[in-house]
């Protein structure tokens, strides 16, 4: 069963773990999640992995198909506007049932 702890206690434990791993030459990563319920560790791990898989797939498609990482539009709200257009275009591509080449 997961336990509820104050944030300061969690941070202290994370620092202790980091110090112990540093002695061994290892590193760790701490993530905090705001949840409405306390799931089992197995359910939490499955949920996080599923979310990351979705995010990674979306980023890969945007980076490869639209070369989003190479984009140079940074002025005002241009980058946000083009990001919305890319996601809309990606949605259209996904919904298209035509089996030929784009």
Note the main attributes of this structure.
102 residues, 3 helices, 59% helix, mainly alpha, single chain
Q: How does this structure look, described?
A:
The chain is mostly helical. Helix content is 59%, strand content 0%. The chain contains three helices and no strands. The protein has helices at 7-23, 41-65, 78-95. The model has no long low-confidence stretch (mean pLDDT 80).
Structural class: mainly alpha
Tell me the radius of gyration. 20 Å
Strand content: under 5%
Principal-axes geometry comes out as elongated
Mean pLDDT: 80
Q: Please give the largest β-sheet.
A: none
Give the beta-strand count. 0
Amino-to-carboxy terminus distance: 50 Å
Summarize the helices and strands and which ones pair or pack.
Blueprint: H1 7-23, H2 41-65, H3 78-95
Question: Brief overview, please?
Answer:
The chain has 102 residues and is mainly α.
């Amino acid at each position: 069963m997961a336990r509820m702890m104050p944030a300061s206690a969690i941070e202290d434990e994370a620092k202790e773990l980091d110090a112990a791993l540093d002695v061994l030459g290892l590193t760790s990563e701490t993530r905090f999640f705001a949840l409405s319920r306390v799931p089992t560790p197995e359910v939490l791990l499955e949920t996080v992995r599923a979310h990351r898989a979705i995010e990674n797939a979306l980023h890969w498609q945007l980076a490869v198909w639209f070369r989003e990482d190479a984009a140079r539009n940074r002025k005002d709200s241009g980058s946000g506007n083009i990001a919305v257009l890319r996601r809309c275009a990606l949605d259209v591509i996904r919904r298209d049932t035509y089996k030929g080449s784009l």
